[in-house]
Amino acid sequence: AREPLVRQVLRQTFQERAKINVAPTKKGKKDVDEAHYAYSFKYLKNKPVKELRDEQFLKISLAKEESLLTIDISVDMKGVDGYGSDQSYFEEIKAFYYRDEFSHQVQEWNRQRTLAIERALRQFLYPQMAKELMNKLLLEAK
């Protein structure tokens, strides 16, 4: 998780494949109506981040600051149109560390590697990459 090359490749892939999910909060369900500026993106599901146009992310962020919306940016979306395949990015990374042998020790090491990769991605790298991407999108929108 600390290796600069790994972070660089992950950052690049995350920015290319990231999907945004937007949902209204309890307050947002009540306050955001057809005349509200946030109505057009009140519900977004698995929208590719690279398809956000102009100041759209700025408006989404503003609605989030007003506690009208929640934002989630992630990369592992299985079965999403436009994603390419059903293989998640986690599965792609895991393949680089997997040893294809049949002994019990190798199988146990593969299991440990999988747990370590999953923890590094889900607890450390994905949240950090999502935060960086949100900041980048906000800067570009301004």
Radius of gyration: 18 Å
How would you classify the helix and strand content by structural class? mainly alpha
The end-to-end distance, rounded to whole angstroms, is: 31 Å
Spans where pLDDT lies below 50 across 5 or more residues:
78-86
Question: Main sheet?
Answer: 3 strands, antiparallel
**Neighbour order of strands in the largest sheet:** 2-1-3
GO molecular function, one term: nucleosome binding
TL;DR?
With 142 residues, this protein is mainly alpha-helical.
Your description of this structure?
The chain is mostly helical. It has a single domain, classed as Tex N-terminal region-like (Orthogonal Bundle), CATH 1.10.3500.10. It is built from five helices and three strands; from the N terminus they run αβαβαβαα. Strands 2-1-3 form a three-stranded antiparallel sheet. Helix 1 packs across helix 5 and helix 4 crosses helix 5. The longest helix has 38 residues. The relative contact order is 0.17. About 6% of the residues have low confidence.
Main attributes of the structure:
142 residues; mainly alpha; 3-stranded antiparallel β-sheet; 5 helices; Tex-like_dom_sf; nucleosome binding
Write the layout of secondary structure elements.
Elements: H1 4-17, E1 19-24, H2 26-31, E2 44-48, H3 56-65, E3 69-74, H4 89-97, H5 104-141
Antiparallel strand pairs: 1-2, 1-3
Helix pairs in contact: 1-5, 4-5
